[in-house]
Amino acid sequence: MPSVGRLRYLDAPARGAGRPRGTLVLIHGFPFNARLWEPQLALAGGGWRVVAPELRGFGDGATGPAGASVDDYAGDVIDLLDALHVEEAVIGGLSMGGYVTFAMFRHAPRYFQGMVLADTRSQADTPEGVEGRKRMIQLVRDRGVQAVTDEMMPRLLSDATTREQPEVVEQLRTLMLSSSASAVVGGLTALMTRPDSTPLLSTIRCPTLILVGEADAITPPALSEEMHRRIAGSVLAVIPRAGHVASLEQPSVFNQALAGFLAHRV
Ligand code: MLT
Q1: DSSP 3-state assignment of 177?
Q2: What is the domain extent for residue 196?
Q3: Structure pTM?
Q4: Domain total of the chain
Q5: pLDDT beyond 80 at 17
Q6: How far does residue 125's CA lie from ligand 1's centre (Å)?
């Protein structure tokens, strides 16, 4: 995996006839890593360079300090775009990747040619949510990443995925288990301290695609419908039979929605 400074990333050069259309940046959720987006690298065939950053501390063999705020992660992705000489891109993420996308938009809206919000929400954690994060931090300190993985797994995927796609269940578990304990503690700290991004929604003017698994139990479709109402001109795609990790559970439907958005809306 190439890297710039401490940030590693997957990079699929634009392919297909005609001039490259632009760059699509996809930011992974918690506690995954850049490989979450492997099924989306195929979108490079439509003329888009696909760049998937690996957030600080996540992934096999990560070195250096973990992040501790969505601003840490957002700053790293902005630095990566600068290092790659990308002045403007379609930028988005899944779940925590969506929170990082909002942080990037808050600090550097000029980079946004378009936005993709997948299985995410604009609100900050509730006080009960923060308590849950603190319990998880204790859990990872006491019993390691395996315990956090076991705790999170049952809510991440739809029943259909769990029943019919054991390979996807295994793939997700492997992604989670490759995170270090310090990355997980850093990620949980970032999650529980993130600000409410709801006031940003009415200021988003770039083309925006919102995707959500119909059975997402962590960021349910009602939250995406609300973002869709507040972001003028946004497009909403509900992915059948998918849960919170729609990009991995139903990659062809997810990619079709994303490819259509890139071809016709951006
Ligand atoms: C994620 O997938 O990034 C997390 O589930 C986000 C969250 O727990 O809020």
Answers
A1: helix
A2: 3-264
A3: 0.97
A4: 1
A5: no
A6: 10
